[in-house]
User: Fold this.
Amino acid sequence: MSRILIHEPHGDIEALLRVVVKRLGHEAVRYGGGEVDDVDAAVIEPANRDGLQLARSLRARDVPLLFTSIYPPATEALALRPAAYLVKPFPLSAIERALDAALGAHVVG
Assistant:
C-alpha cells in the first residue's frame, strides 16, 4: 500500500479522488499545509498556487506527481515533469491508470 497525497481545492473532487485512491488499495493523505513527509506520490491541482509550490517541493524529493486540472498544461507545471497531466473532466479509469503507472515507474526507476 502506498501513501498518496491529495491536494485539491474543491471538496467534492477531493472526496472523489480519495475514493479512487482507496479503491486502488492505497492510503489517501489529505494535505494540511506545510511540509509533507512520507508520501509515495501526489495528486495535485497545479492551477492552485499552493498546489504548484507543493509540487515543486515534492519534485525536489523525487516524489511522482499527477496533475489534475481544469486548465490545459502550463509551461511552469510541465517543467516539473508530472507522470500525468489530466484535464478535468476525465474518466476515473484515467487517474487509476496514471497512478498505477507512476507508482510502478517510481519503484522500477
